[in-house]
C-alpha cells in the first residue's frame, strides 16, 4: 500500500494530522480567550465565535477527514456541499421565521414589560399606565438572607432597587411563594452576587415579594397613586 | 499469475471499501442534518428561560474548554491510530485507539458530571424550553459519543484477538470518520452553546 504514492495521499500523514491538531487547538483557544476576557461582546462576539468555528470545521475536514483528496467524481464533497445548503435553509429559515413570530406575538407579561421599559403611554388609543417620568429611587437591600427594610411606601412611578449584598444569587419573585404574581411585567429578578436591579413602580396597591429559593426571605411595598 | 490475482483482489477490495465509505459518509451527512435541527431549535429557544437562569449563569466555560481539548486530542490520536492501522502495526493501533477510548471516556464523564450538577440544582430538561433544547442537543451528542465508545471497544477486542485484517481496517476507518465527525459537531456545541452564552 505504502509503495503506491497515489493511494497514500488520500489518507493523512502524521505531519498533516499534527498540523491539523495544532491549528484546531489555536482556533479553540483564541475564541475562548476573546470571549472570557471580554474582548468582544454582543453581535461581534457571535460573529467571531461562529467565524472561528467555521474555520476550525474547514481545518478538520481537510486535515482529519481528508476532504478534497478523494478520487473523481468527488461524490463525498458534492454530498457535503448539498448538505451545507440544507443546513443553511434550516438554520436561517428557523431563526428568521421564529424571530418574526416572536416579534408579532409577544406574550402579555412581556408586552407589559416592554410598555414600561419603553415608556409607551398608549397603545391603540388606550392608556397603558406606563410612567413617563420617574420619581425618587427607593432601595431594598438583601444581606445575609435578611431584607431591609421589609416594607416600603412609595408613590406611583417611583423606582425601586433590589441590591444583593450576599455572596450568592437571589431570585426575587412577586406575590407569595405558592402563587407568584408578576409585577409590572417582571416575572423574576435574578440578582447575581453583588448586583442590583431596578423596577419602576407602575402598578398601584400593596404587593409582596420573596426570594424564590428561600421563601422565608420576603417583604412588601405599597404604591400610592 | 498469483501476483495478478492478488492485485485484482486488492483493487476489488479497494473499490468495495470506497463504496462502503461513501455509504457511511451519507449516514454522517444525514446525522449532521439531525444535529442541525437540534441546533436550530436551541438557537430559537435559548432565551426562553421562564424567568430562570440562562446559559450565562449556568455554564462553566473552563469546563467546556477542558471537554473540547479532550475531544480534540482524542480525534488526533484516532488519526494516528488510523495511520498505524494502514501500516499494519497492530500494537500501535491498540495504543492510539486505547488512548482515544480513555479520552472519550473522560469527555463523557465530564459531560455527565455537568448534567448531574444541573439536575441536582433543579435545572432539568422539564424546567424550561431553553434547558429542554440544551439537554436534547448536548445529550444527543453524548449518546453518539457513548455508541462510538462501545463500537471502539468491540473493534479493539476483535483487533486484539484476530489481528489487523482487511475488514477490521475498514471498520477502523469508518470509526475514525465517525469520531472526527463528532469532534466537528462538538466544536459547534462549544461555540454556539458555551461561548455564545456570554454574548
Can you characterise this structure?
The complex is a heterodimer of chains A (225) and B (199). Chain A is of the alpha+beta class and 225 residues long. Chain A is built from 5 helices and 11 strands. Chain A has 2 domains: 5-105; 133-224, Sandwich (Immunoglobulin-like), CATH 2.60.40.420. Chain A is 41% helix and 24% strand. In chain A, helix 2 runs antiparallel to helix 3. The longest helix of chain A is centred in the middle third of the chain and has 30 residues, at 75-104. Chain A is elongated, with a radius of gyration of 28 Å. The termini of chain A are far apart. Mean pLDDT of chain A is 84; it is low at 1-8. By secondary structure, chain B is mostly helical. Chain B has a single domain (31-198), classed as Four Helix Bundle (Hemerythrin (Met), subunit A). Helices cover 85% and strands 0% of the residues of chain B. Residues 1-6 of chain B have low confidence and may be disordered. Chains A and B meet through helix 2, helix 3 and helix 4 of A and helix 1, helix 3 and helix 6 of B.
A few lines on this structure:
The complex is a heterodimer of chains A (225) and B (199). By secondary structure, chain A is an alpha+beta fold.
Q: What share of the residues of chain A does DSSP label as strand, in percent?
A: 15-25%
Biggest interface reads: A-B, 54 and 48 residues
Number of helices of chain A: 5
Radius of gyration of chain A: 28 Å
The count of DSSP E runs of length 2 or more, i.e. the number of strands of chain B, is 0
Low-confidence sequence ranges of chain A: 1-8
What's the architecture of chain B, going by CATH?
Up-down Bundle
| SSE pattern of chain A | HHHHHEEEEEEEEEEE
Instruction: Please tell me what the overall shape of chain A is.
Output: elongated
Largest sheet of chain B: none
Structural class by SSE content of chain A: alpha+beta
What is the residue-mean pLDDT of chain B, rounded to a whole number?
92
What would you give as the CATH superfamily of chain B?
Cytochrome c oxidase, subunit III, four-helix bundle
Report strand % of chain B: under 5%
Distance between the termini of chain A: 88 Å
Amino acid at each position: 500500500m505504502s509503495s503506491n504514492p497515489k493511494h497514500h495521499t488520500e489518507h493523512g500523514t502524521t505531519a498533516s494530522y499534527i498540523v491539523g491538531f495544532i491549528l484546531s487547538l489555536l482556533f479553540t483557544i483564541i475564541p475562548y480567550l476573546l470571549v472570557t476576557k471580554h474582548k468582544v461582546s454582543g453581535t461581534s462576539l457571535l460573529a467571531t465565535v461562529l467565524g472561528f468555528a467555521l474555520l476550525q470545521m474547514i481545518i478538520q475536514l481537510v486535515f482529519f477527514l481528508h476532504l478534497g483528496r478523494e478520487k473523481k467524481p468527488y461524490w463525498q464533497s458534492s454530498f457535503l456541499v448539498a448538505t451545507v445548503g440544507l443546513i443553511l435553509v434550516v438554520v436561517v429559515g428557523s431563526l428568521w421565521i421564529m424571530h418574526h413570530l416572536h416579534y408579532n406575538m409577544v406574550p402579555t407579561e412581556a408586552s407589559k414589560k416592554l410598555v414600561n421599559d419603553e415608556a409607551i403611554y398608549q397603545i391603540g388609543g388606550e392608556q397603558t399606565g406606563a410612567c413617563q417620568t420617574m420619581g425618587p429611587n427607593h432601595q431594598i437591600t438583601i444581606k445575609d438572607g435578611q431584607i431591609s427594610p421589609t416594607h416600603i411606601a412609595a408613590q406611583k412611578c417611583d423606582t425601586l432597587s433590589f441590591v444583593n449584598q450576599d455572596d450568592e444569587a437571589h431570585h426575587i419573585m412577586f406575590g407569595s411563594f405558592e402563587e407568584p404574581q408578576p409585577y409590572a411585567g417582571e416575572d423574576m429578578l435574578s440578582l447575581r452576587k453583588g448586583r442590583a436591579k431596578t423596577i419602576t413602580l407602575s402598578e398601584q396597591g400593596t404587593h409582596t415579594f420573596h426570594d424564590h429559593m428561600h421563601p422565608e426571605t420576603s417583604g412588601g411595598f405599597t404604591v400610592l397613586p | 499469475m498469483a501476483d495478478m490475482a492478488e492485485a485484482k483482489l486488492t483493487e476489488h477490495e479497494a473499490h468495495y471499501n470506497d463504496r462502503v465509505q461513501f455509504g457511511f459518509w451519507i449516514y454522517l451527512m444525514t446525522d449532521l442534518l439531525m444535529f442541525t435541527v437540534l441546533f436550530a431549535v436551541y438557537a430559537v429557544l435559548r432565551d426562553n428561560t421562564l424567568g430562570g437562569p440562562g446559559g450565562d449563569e449556568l455554564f462553566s466555560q473552563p469546563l467546556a474548554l477542558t471537554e473540547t481539548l479532550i475531544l480534540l486530542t482524542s480525534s488526533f490520536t484516532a488519526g494516528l491510530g488510523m495511520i498505524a492501522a494502514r501500516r499494519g502495526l497492530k500494537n500501535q493501533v491498540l495504543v492510539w485507539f486505547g488512548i482515544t477510548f480513555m479520552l472519550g471516556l473522560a469527555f463523557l464523564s465530564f459531560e455527565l458530571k455537568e448534567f448531574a450538577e444541573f439536575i441536582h440544582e433543579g435545572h432539568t430538561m422539564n424546567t424550561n424550553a431553553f434547558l429542554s433544547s440544551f439537554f436534547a442537543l448536548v445529550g444527543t451528542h453524548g449518546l453518539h459519543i457513548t455508541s462510538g465508545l462501545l463500537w471502539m471497544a468491540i473493534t479493539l477486542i476483535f483487533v486484539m484477538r484476530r489481528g489487523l485484517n482487511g475488514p477490521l481496517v475498514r471498520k477502523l476507518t469508518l470509526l475514525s470518520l465517525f469520531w472526527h465527525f463528532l469532534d466537528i459537531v462538538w466544536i459547534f456545541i462549544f461555540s454556539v452553546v458555551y461561548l455564545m452564552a456570554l454574548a
